[in-house]
């Protein structure tokens, strides 16, 4: 019905609630995400964001140990077609989450390193740079840089690189004793040495 009769957003949210997608068993979650890939036409951005929220948000925010193989399979499947809305939903929640959020941070790093499309990786960078930098976000920035290098995408849009460098300069005093921050600065200077003066 998602294909033949596109649902308006309240209807889609109602359907998600009716199907209890936020708490469905993980084997069903994997099958459901796989079936989404076959939809034609593809889901709209807003519909994909609603599904990302319903399918993954509660599960990701409640992680206290590494995600299961099935949850990662579902995330990877969803990412293969809808990485931008997934990134928007999960990262926005991660950035608002108080405390360390160690498992959530590791998951975001894994998504950046293995699953997200290149334009979504740049979205991650821009979203992280919109909030005050914290120790838990340093690994995410490091993952972004690593992905850029592995994908041979060392060139960032000038405005994004300027914002990254400015943020690092402004935050340096607060991270004077942080080994993670020192590694991040070194990585930026190494990867973007031709663009950073």
UniProtKB/TrEMBL annotation:
Gene Ontology BP annotations: interstrand cross-link repair
Protein name: FANCE protein
GO CC list: Fanconi anaemia nuclear complex
Protein's organism: Dicaeum eximium
Residues covered by the Fanconi Anaemia group E protein C-terminal domain: 8-196
InterPro entries from the UniProt entry: FANCE, Fanconi_anaemia_gr_E_prot_C
Residue spans crossing the bilayer: none
Gene name for this UniProt entry: Fance
Pfam families: FA_FANCE
Source species, domain of life: Eukaryota
């Amino acid at each position: 019905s998602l294909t033949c009769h596109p649902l308006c957003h309240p209807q889609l949210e109602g359907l998600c609630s009716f199907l209890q997608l936020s708490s469905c068993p993980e084997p069903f979650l994997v099958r459901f995400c796989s079936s989404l890939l076959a939809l034609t036409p593809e889901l709209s951005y807003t519909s994909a964001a609603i599904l990302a929220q319903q399918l993954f948000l509660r599960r990701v925010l409640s992680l206290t140990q590494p995600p299961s193989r099935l949850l990662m399979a579902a995330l990877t499947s969803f990412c293969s077609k809808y990485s931008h809305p997934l990134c928007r939903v999960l990262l926005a929640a991660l950035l608002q989450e108080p405390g360390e959020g160690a498992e959530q941070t590791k998951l975001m790093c894994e998504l950046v390193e293995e699953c997200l499309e290149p334009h979504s990786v740049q979205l991650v960078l821009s979203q992280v740079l919109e909030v005050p930098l914290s120790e838990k976000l340093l690994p995410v920035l490091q993952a972004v840089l690593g992905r850029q290098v592995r994908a041979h995408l060392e060139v960032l849009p000038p405005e994004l690189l300027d914002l990254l460098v400015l943020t690092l300069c402004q935050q340096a005093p607060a991270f004077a004793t942080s080994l993670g921050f020192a590694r991040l600065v070194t990585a930026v200077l190494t990867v973007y040495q031709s663009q950073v003066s």
